[in-house]
Amino acid sequence: MAKLKKSVRAKASASAQHADLQAKAEQMSRSIVESAQQIWMAGVGAFTRAQGEGSKLFEALVKEGMTIEQTTRKLATGKVDAVRDAVEDRVGVVRERAVDTWDRLETVFETRVQRALNRLGVPSREDLTELTARVNELNGELRKISKSAPAKKPAAKPAARKAPARKPAAKKAATKAKSTRKPALPKAPKPVAPQA
């Protein structure tokens, strides 16, 4: 019986513990549900507040972005102008150098061509100008002389000589052979190699 009492007491204390545990579990479950509800409500409240204040925040961010963009454009425009000026200056310097170099090259080329022409005996522009002036001067003197000198009668032509008797057949053949041949051209002068 003592065993029975002990088992009854153990069962009673076990059921009391079980009831205690069950009460604690229910209490914990309620507190979890309440916490979940509070979190949900906080989220809904944050959403509502963000919705209301979000448009204000958005507008403030847009204004700030616009001011930053304007400042950046002013800086960029200034930099672009400075870069453009620097590039134009450098292009001008390079253009001047190229023109100077081209002028020097042209002068060197003209000098070398003139030297080569002088070696070959081709008269220069100055030589031709001098010769033209001299020819004009001589023509003027000839005109003066021809105007001042009395007109002379042309001299009488000397009497024509009689041709010696020819051998008809042999000379005709030789004449035909000469007339069918083309006249020889004068030989061209040999080119002279330029001296270095």
What is the total number of structural domains?
1
Shape: rod-shaped
Radius of gyration, in Å, reads: 63 Å
Give me the secondary-structure category: mainly alpha
Provide a count of the helices: 3
Fraction in beta strands: under 5%
Low-pLDDT residue spans: none
Order of helices and strands: HHH
Oligomer: single chain
Integer average pLDDT: 78
Largest sheet: none
Number of strands: 0
For the terminal residues, how far apart are their CA atoms? Answer: 147 Å
Q: How much helix is in the residues?
A: over 70%
Give a concise summary.
With 196 residues, the protein is mainly α. The chain contains three helices and no strands.
Give an overview of the whole structure.
The chain has three helices and no strands. It has 196 residues and is mostly helical.
Layout of secondary structure:
Blueprint (H helix, E strand, L loop, with lengths): L1 H119 L4 H24 L19 H13 L16
List keywords for this structure.
single chain; mainly alpha; rod-shaped
